[in-house]
Specification:
This protein is α/β, with parallel strands linked by helices. It has 8 helices and 15 strands. Strands 2-1-15 form a 3-stranded mixed sheet, covered by helices on one side. It has a 3-stranded mixed sheet with strand order 3-4-5, covered by helices on one side. A 3-stranded mixed sheet has the order 6-7-8, with helices on one face. Strand 10, helix 5 and strand 11 form a beta-alpha-beta unit.
Length: 290
């Protein structure tokens, strides 16, 4: 029985295992505003740089003691590299999410091939919900982004319902579809500490985060959209992976006493994703046992 092999109850517990996908068939397509802008400006993927940057990310994770697991890259799935979206590890088992874009629907088969059947706790069946909008902040506290695009209210409500049944405090964070996912404008970097595009998130949601004891470090609109600056990965123990080009944000994180691993990831950020999108944590140390 391996049903409890994968477990997370936070975004910030010590990361032990992560799910990745090699960018063998990664490409930019006009399915989000960031990729559309890059393509309109005549920017093109440098495939040698792309491969090297993925290698930098893997090296950073392994250097931090994280075990890396991989989906099999499949032709015709240009965004399979963004493993954050197609499943969600929880304290109760894995959830298979419900992807919105037609070019991503086939990723569900790859997810089911990776997990054993008894590892899958739930399968989302209503609306759409993607892992980039799901933030298991800490034990008992969940936020789900709702843009009406990648995640809609029906999908968020179904997911939240499962956690509310378990006694969790949950909140939908609504924002314009332009921002794709919640992890473009908000991400935890350490326990009770997050970076956020504070001018984008509604005042009542900012207040809710603060009421939960979460301190917010401000990120500008340009940093969030141009650099994918909020899209970072907490490793636990005061460590975080953040793109090399996010110079000011990395300085801000280091000023907070965090250790920053900063692989170059601009080939991904220009297509609308970065390190948080590219990583689905499979196993973290529970904050309740920390």
């Amino acid at each position: 029985m391996v049903a409890n092999r994968w477990f997370i109850d936070s975004e910030t517990g010590d990361l032990a295992d992560v799910l990745l996908c090699p960018p063998d068939y990664y490409s930019w397509i006009p399915s989000n505003d960031i990729a559309i802008q890059s393509m309109a400006n005549g920017v093109r993927i440098d495939r040698a740089a792309l491969k090297a940057q993925f290698g930098e990310l893997v090296d950073a994770l392994k250097g931090a003691g994280v075990s890396c697991h991989y989906l099999t890259a499949k032709e015709g799935m240009p965004y399979e590299v963004y493993t954050r979206d197609s499943s969600q590890t929880t304290p109760f088992g894995t959830v298979v999410t419900r992807l919105s874009r037609p070019e991503r629907k086939g990723e569900e088969k790859q997810i089911r091939a990776f997990y054993s059947p008894d590892e899958i706790w739930k399968t989302c069946t209503k609306g759409n919900i993607e892992g980039g909008d799901i933030h298991i902040i800490r034990p008992g506290l969940l936020a789900v982004g709702v843009s009406g695009g990648r995640t809609d209210e029906a999908g968020a409500a179904e997911f939240i319902g499962w956690f509310e049944e378990a006694g969790w405090t949950c909140r939908m964070i609504r924002f314009p579809e332009h921002f794709l996912h919640l992890d473009v404008i908000f991400t935890m970097v350490a326990e009770n500490l997050a970076i956020a595009a504070v001018d984008v998130i509604a005042d009542e949601d900012l207040e809710w985060f603060r009421q939960q004891g979460i301190r917010l470090l401000p990120v500008s609109y340009k940093e969030a959209m141009r650099d994918m600056g909020c899209n970072v990965l907490a490793l636990g123990q005061g460590r975080v992976v953040s793109p090399h080009h996010s110079t000011r944000i990395n300085q801000m994180l280091r000023a907070e006493g965090l250790t920053v691993f900063d692989p170059e990831l601009n080939q991904f950020s220009q297509g609308g994703g970065s390190v948080h999108c590219m990583t689905m944590p499979l196993r973290r140390k529970s904050l309740q046992s920390a």
